[in-house]
Amino acid sequence: MENNTHKLVVIVASVREGRFGPVVGSWLAEQAESHGGFDVDVVDLADVEIPLSLPAASPKYAGDDYPRPDGMRRLTTALESADAFVVVTPEYNHSYPASLKAAIDWHFTQWTAMPVAFVSYGGAAGGRHAVLHLENVLTELHAVTIRDGLAFPNYFTAWQDGRPLDPESPGYAKTLLDQLAWWAGALKSAREAAPYPA
């Protein structure tokens, strides 16, 4: 990886049968690869073992000794190697999927002082309620959420052949990625200069 690129992990959050998330995730990964500022890795939570039952100890204090299942290793490794994240999420009942909450809760330090951007999709609100809830959760974990996200209202009529019909979408994606790259560089330099006081 070149010094001017950042390791970006794109997390596809939905595990629902017939989900649209992989389509959005694939398009966003393509935009990120074209951007030139990222080395992109897509992690689909449907491929990860994510139990809802958690160990008694907090991952904040257990650190590397936290007892995660072997089926979660790919996710944990990806989170630990990342410089930045994009979460691709639908909106279920005005919030985000349980699969994503569980994936977040199984980790802690992996989110600390890391930039996170959001790409959402749904009905009329385009997944914005899910993103509002995620911003609260990830702020609690000391992540830095990116202001300019992407939202796709009524995605079922707004996409065709794996691409959004709105011609402005690539431009919005570039804005998101520009901000994410800036924060990835700034936060990486800050983490290298001094440990984050979490």
Give a written overview of the molecule.
- By secondary structure, the chain is α/β, with parallel strands linked by helices.
- The chain is 39% helix and 19% strand.
- The chain has seven helices and eight strands, in the order E-H-E-H-H-E-H-E-H-E-E-H-E-E-H.
- Strands 1, 2, 3, 4, 5 and 6 form a six-stranded parallel β-sheet that branches.
- Strand 3, helix 4 and strand 4 (115-121) form a beta-alpha-beta unit.
- Helix 1 (21-35) packs across helix 7 (169-193).
- The two termini are 29 Å apart.
Concise structural overview:
This protein has helices at residues 21-35, 59-62, 73-81, 98-105, 128-140, 155-158, 169-193; strands spanning 6-12, 38-44, 84-90, 115-121, 144-145, 150-152, 159-160, 163-164.
Descriptors for this entry?
8 strands; about 20% strand; six-stranded parallel sheet; single chain; 7 helices; alpha/beta; about 200 residues
